[in-house]
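Example record used in the benchmark description.
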Amino acid sequence: MTQAGRQSSPRNGSGRNSSGRNAGQGGTGRSSGGGFSGRSAGAGKRNFTQGEGRPFKASKPREAAPFDPDNPTTADDYNRGQAARSAKPFRKPGSNKPGFGKAPGTPGALKPKPKQAKQFGSKAFGSERFGQNLGPVRKPSRSRGPRQDVPQSELHDADGVRLQKVMAQAGVASRRVCEEMILEGRVEVDGVVTTELGMRVDPTAAVIHVDGIRIQLDETLVYMVFNKPKGVVSTMEDPEGRPCISDFLKNNKNKGERLFHVGRLDVATEGLLLLTNDGELANRLTHPSYEVPKTYLVQVRGPFPQGVGAKLKSGVELEDGVAAVDSFRLVDSTPGHVLIEVVLHSGKNRIVRRMFDAVGFPVERLVRVKVGPIGLGDQRQGSIRNLGRQEVGHLLASVGL
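Model output (structure tokens):
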């Protein structure tokens, strides 16, 4: 190739310089090509107005987002939202329901919503495993009387222990939470309310209630639940050698403790027996004046005709007088069998069996599942467990202790 040819070749560096990089100075080469003419304008800046002779087209404006008066993004949106709200007529909640606006008690008027009891942030004994859903404290008919606010000086024991510390040691809650309970008026000492944090009490003598729940400060007292199996005698010792309650206490840490069993269950009846060394509690639970309810599940032959339950509630005549159940409910029904739940407060011997015999439906199986606020739940048959402190408090409060 000749010298002139090499100089005009596209691969030659001088050729590139004269055509591409110096296009802004009037050079020939790539500057004359339509495809790259944008490079020659404005010292490296692209010029879309002259590219290949195509006219310039402005970009389409974005569609405005739908206006939401509840979520304004600008001041204009906020003003528009205020105007939209003021234009809508105000409606009271429930105004579209039939009967709205009628006076209470008139036909067709809406029923007033029941007022809910005040809910506190922290629950007494809220960290315990058992007794979390015992509901409100059930008090006997012989109540302690109305609560009163009294000066701290009348209850203060200078040699005692601070009230919040006693409560915390009893497992009510942390000391800080116990202080909040005192300030909220939820704590009673010896039957009266105290709201002062400087209170000192004698733990061996003071009677303390939180939200109506009695705090048991005597650590020597024992409270247990025994799920009695069928065939076990409701006694601690049996001269005939039959299985009894003490046989199930052999592996319990309270084996040598003198315990009372609250009430009795016949040999064929299963279910809940309370065991305790608190003699006062045992006496009150069995005394008829406190009317402690007991819940039983009764299995009888089916079908069970209507009207028999009403007869049991109204009362049936027995050899020792008239007896009635407090409530009656059909739980389940299978071919040939019916399961019934009854609640009664009578403590007479074999009362449930005798009542069902009197109406012509002998009991096939009988299980006591609840005494007062204490229930069996899913406790295994033949097992014994200690009551939680909240359960003990509800049990004591149910008989006025």
